[in-house]
Design a protein that fits this description.
The complex is a heterodimer of chains A (270) and B (262). With 270 residues, chain A is mainly alpha-helical. Chain A has helices at residues 2-9, 13-18, 21-44, 54-63, 65-99, 101-116, 123-130, 134-158, 162-170, 175-213, 217-227, 231-259, 265-269. In chain B, 37% of the residues lie in helices and 23% in strands. Classes of the chains: A mainly alpha (270), B alpha/beta (262).
């Protein structure tokens, strides 16, 4: 696809120079993917119950707009609430862990062990405790997304340059001074960077929980569509998830740029 | 001349009783206002010396006395500068220089009310090291040499009586290094601060110092003490005189033999 466009514009060189290909590339590649997908379905003649063409998926989005819209909002809600809890808890636990070498050494293996547990295995337990619905979805989103935040914040604190610490300690700085003046500002790029990873994981958590144990949300909508062999609707749900995921990721990336521009020195110095 | 720093028969061992002995029987005295340089083979405990004098490490035996007080905790009358400038990238150069004032007990409570006065002082220091007008720049917008100049300002902002320099010019090119030698020389002459410079560069030590301590390989102690005879103020030209080269040569020989013994 991209090769094709390049070939057609090569003779009209001045025009090609006016177009910002880097800015345009994400859109071109996305359109390219859909076109490729559509062609694949046409050539292989796959039935819509196996792999629906994108045109069929878009048709399903229009057809089922009301439930899709409602369930998308529900999933966005459980995800963002779970993510927000993860941000607060992750920041707090990360600062706590990064505070001292002993706490770091003691809690780190526990955290890794906890993170290794597949969160889908926790959903039944959450259902026993809280019943089905939004609460298990929120908690699953929280549980799956808080780990990268904790690790990144703790790493930012634990990797203060020893010289910086020496300079400040020689002046009589207390642990709290060093944390406030150096540790916390220093860990902020790590923290904001981790939000991009965490938000996408939060979607995974909430949708997994909604699929298993909820009557609302895109996860639930997709699992009931699947049981009725309404595969285009399943794909419509996936597409909505992708759109929400990209939107939230872009928001996090924007926040990161705004908050810690100093850490992106090459782009700022231009 | 009264002594600002006295190190008397100090042993410092890392990592418990069976750990490595970094310095052993270390004894040296540095007078008030003096410029001392410490040279020696690598791993001779020069960094340990830095930490002992600043109170970051407390020796297992022997005493360290700074400004008539035995060192038992970090002494806030020192300024430190390392080879790595360690400027905080989220602060402007000026805010980086003001950082020690936010820490040192006698300044931190006055800082907010007297900000103007302190900023003026920082700007004056920047001017002295040739960085006038660069205060609002971020450290990563400065070259390595400029960052090191700013680093010196940060080490001096709280008017320390003692300046500890740990190979501050090691990572710079030869011309920038000579420029900064002159900056340090002039600062020392103008402010009367006592300086202990830890370095590998024998020409640097000879050019700047009043006295040079040659340390042995680990466990480090002072092998020999030289008084540098060249009159101040010294010009960079002094480095091309025969007496200067003879002294560097002699130091070189002493360190080479200290390495062989190790």
């Amino acid at each position: 696809m991209s090769v094709l466009t390049e070939n057609t514009v090569t003779p009209a060189k001045p025009l090609a120079h006016h177009i910002n290909w880097v800015k345009l590339a994400p859109w071109l590649y996305t359109i390219g993917l859909f076109v490729l997908w559509e062609l694949l379905v046409i050539v292989l003649q796959t039935p819509p119950t196996i792999l629906p063409a994108p045109s069929r998926v878009f048709q399903a989005i229009v057809q089922y707009w009301s439930p899709i819209w409602k369930n998308s909002l529900q999933t966005l809600y459980t995800t963002t609430v779970g993510f927000a809890i993860a941000v607060v808890a992750g920041l707090a636990i990360g600062l706590f862990i990064g505070w001292s070498k002993a706490i770091y050494a003691g809690l780190y293996p526990l955290m890794i062990g906890f993170n290794a547990i597949p969160k889908v295995a926790l959903v039944p337990i959450l259902v026993i405790w809280f019943g089905i619905g939004a609460v298990p979805a929120i908690l699953t989103a929280f549980l799956i997304s808080f780990f990268p935040i904790v690790v990144n914040v703790a790493t930012g604190l634990a990797t203060i340059e020893p010289e910086t610490e020496d300079v400040l300690r020689a002046l009589g700085a207390k642990k709290l001074d060093i944390m406030l003046k150096v540790g916390i500002p220093r860990s902020m790029p790590y923290f904001f960077g981790s939000l991009k990873v965490a938000i996408t994981l939060a979607f995974v958590g909430s949708v997994v929980s909604e699929t298993v144990a909820s009557n609302y949300g895109l996860g639930n909508m997709m699992s009931s569509a699947q049981s009725q062999f309404n595969v285009p609707l399943v794909f419509a749900g996936l597409l909505m998830l992708a759109v929400e995921g990209i939107a939230m990721y872009a928001l996090m990336a924007w926040i990161e740029m705004r908050m810690t521009g100093w850490a992106h020195r090459s782009s700022m110095s231009q | 001349m009264p002594h600002l720093v006295t190190i008397d028969n100090v042993d410092m061992r890392y990592g418990g009783v069976a750990g490595t002995l970094a310095v052993s029987g270390l004894t040296m005295k540095v007078g008030k206002g003096e410029f001392a340089a410490v040279v020696g083979p690598s791993g001779c405990g020069k960094s340990t010396l830095m930490k002992l004098v600043t109170g970051l490490h407390i020796p297992q035996s022997g005493v360290v006395i700074v400004a008539d007080k035995q060192v038992t905790k970090p002494v806030s009358i020192v300024g430190m500068a390392f080879q790595n400038p360690t400027m905080l990238p989220w602060r402007t150069t000026l805010d980086n220089i003001l950082l020690p004032l936010e820490i040192v007990e006698r300044h931190r409570h006055r800082l907010r009310a007297n900000k103007r006065e302190y900023v003026e002082k920082a700007e004056h220091l920047l001017e002295t090291v040739g960085l006038k007008g660069f205060g609002s720049k971020f450290p990563w917008q400065l070259s390595g040499g400029m960052q090191q100049r700013a680093n010196l300002c940060r080490a001096l902002i709280h008017e320390p009586e003692l300046l500890m320099l740990d190979e501050p010019f090691g990572a710079l090119d030869a011309f920038t290094r000579e420029e900064l030698w002159c900056v340090i020389r002039d600062l020392h002459a103008a402010q009367g601060v006592t300086i202990i410079l830890v370095t590998h560069d024998l020409r640097e030590a000879t050019f700047l110092a009043d006295r040079i301590f040659v340390m042995s390989a680990r466990p480090g102690k002072v092998l020999k003490e030289h008084t540098v005879p060249f009159a101040r103020p010294r010009d960079l030209e002094v480095m091309y005189e025969k007496a200067f080269n003879d002294m560097v040569h002699e130091l070189h020989g002493e360190i080479a033999s200290a390495r062989v013994v190790a």
